[in-house]
Amino acid sequence: MWQYFSKSVLLLTLAVALCCGLYPLALWSLGQLAFPSQANGSLVFGDDGKPVGSRLIAQPFTRDGYFQPRPSAASYNAAASASSSLAASNYALRDRVARTLGPMASYAGGAKSGQLVSADVERWFAEDRYQKQPHIVAQWASQHASLAQGWVKADPAHVAYVDNWAKRHPDSVARFARDNPALPKPNTVDLAVVFFQNFAEENPGKFPGPAVQGKGPETGIQPVSTGPEIQSMFFDMWREDHPDAGLRDLPGDLVTTSASGLDPHITLDNAEYQLDRIAGQWASDLKRDPAAVRTEIEQILQENASAPFGGLAGEKFINVLEVNLQLRKRYGAPS
Fold first, then answer.
1. Of the candidates 188, 130, 132, which has an alpha carbon nearest to the alpha carbon of residue 161?
2. Checking CA distances to 28, which of 77, 161, 235, 288 falls within 20 to 30 Å?
3. Cβ atoms 214, 65 nearer than 8 A
4. Is residue 6 within a helix (H) or strand (E), and if so which, with residue range?
5. Distance CA 286, CA 12 (A)
6. Residues 105-135: pLDDT tens digits?
7. Alpha-carbon distance 312 to 289, whole Å?
8. What is the pLDDT of residue 219?
9. What are phi and psi of 262, to 5 degrees?
10. Are 221 and 174 in contact (CB under 8 A)?
């Protein structure tokens, strides 16, 4: 009996030493010697020697002077890597794509060829008529209650703003409770649609947007008719009201998420589409000729673009983090 037990213990000890000690040590040593960068996460370092990201994981860039990565359903959180899993029939997918398109869509031809549609979206919104009916905001909230509720939940300032509205409009809250007996004591999110309907009546051609610093209420929200929020949120409704407007095609990866939500690359076509915005911002910051800056950034893109299998297959991609670091190295920090 002891003989079999001792052999089992010896076999277990050898297996643990080999599989949990020697084998991992051998792989770690090989990785550190032959592939030190990949073995340590493909980290990218700044001029100060500190890591600023990984070549393998996308991160958000919001300044106009930088290239932006693909949208991410995981909010670029590597611990929550996931796709959106939204079906093509899901309006939430259409809304997300439309919000991305709104501030950057441009006309494909005609007298306004190359011009952004965002200014026309704002003018249409200020007229406050959709499908020949008044109150665009009320129609938006009524047709898409989940989006209206999502707006309320998106920011504590939004919750506070709707709470203050509810205190000032007890009759509207009471009427909602009567019409919805299953919600005798509605919370702030429940009141989203009725809030927007009332807001549209009191503020035609306006939307509760971010207040200019020092000019808004304590909640940081005030009625606005212009700005990125209007351009993005109401682009889809504007498009439905203007179906004949010819718009320039955009690269698909500009508005679609990857399966992981962390794709660090964008196509060269995507980067070229963003080029005018980026060059214009750097030219403004540096007080330089936009055409000259555009040529320089175009050269950076070409130098950093590569296709799979050494260029033998597929289209060219760029790594967003690496290119943005090149821009920072060449032009310095944005103003």
1. 188
2. 77
3. no
4. helix 2-17
5. 67
6. 999 988 999 899 999 999 999 999 999 999 9
7. 36
8. 56
9. -130, 15
10. no
Cα separation, 121 vs 237, in Å, equals 9
Residues in the chain: 335
Confidence label for 213 from pLDDT (cuts 50, 70 and 90): low
Nearest to 283 by CA among 334, 319, 232, 241: 334
What is the residue whose two structure tokens read 């050898």?
Answer: 14
Cross-strand bridge partners of residue 221: 210
What is the separation, in whole angstroms, between the first and last Cα of the chain?
Answer: 79
Q: Give the residue among 112, 107, 139 at the shortest CA–CA distance from 234.
A: 139
The rounded distance, in Å, linking the Cα atoms of 102 and 68 is 15
Residue 203 is classified by DSSP as S
Would you tell me how many other CB atoms lie within 10 Å of the CB of residue 297? 25
Are the beta carbons of 278 and 93 closer than 8 angstroms? no
Rounded alpha-carbon distances, angstroms, from residue 149 to 174, 194, 218, 263, 275: 19, 11, 21, 30, 35
Closest C-alpha among 220, 212, 213 to residue 160 = 220
Print the SS3 string covering 258-300: CCCCCCCEEEHHHHHHHHHHHHHHHHHHHCCCHHHHHHHHHHH
Structure tokens at 266: 């964008």
Two tokens at 180? Answer: 């919805």
CB 75 within 8 A of CB 154: no
Of residues 87 and 59, more confidence is placed in 59
Tokens read off for 257: 């998420």
Q: Which of 86, 83, 141 is nearest to 260 (CA)?
A: 83
Question: How far from 43 is each of 145, 307, 325, CA to CA, in Å?
Answer: 43, 21, 13
Task: Enter the tokens of residue 225.
Answer: 């008719």
